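Quick one: DUF504 domain-containing protein from Candidatus Naiadarchaeum limnaeum, structure tokens please.
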Amino acid sequence: MQLKDIFSLYRFGRGKKLSNLRVTIIHRGAPQDKKTINFARTEVKIFRSHFEYFDRAENDFIYIPFHRILEIRAKAKIIYRKRMPMQRGQ
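--- reply ---
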């Protein structure tokens, strides 16, 4: 299932809510270059190839392209995990 389909399901699907999602993204400068966004705690806008979330520290919406998404969890269940290319020598 593609990311836009996952977001559509949780946006419009019966019994599904965007607020149940926690999305882990690549975020340079954060510990381990990862940041998790809890959709229940921020305003989120979903678009065709990206999403935006409201960052209180910046007092603005932050643009996140889908290719930076590493993982999506609905409650405790992983519903998406990005496939990472193998590193040489592994």
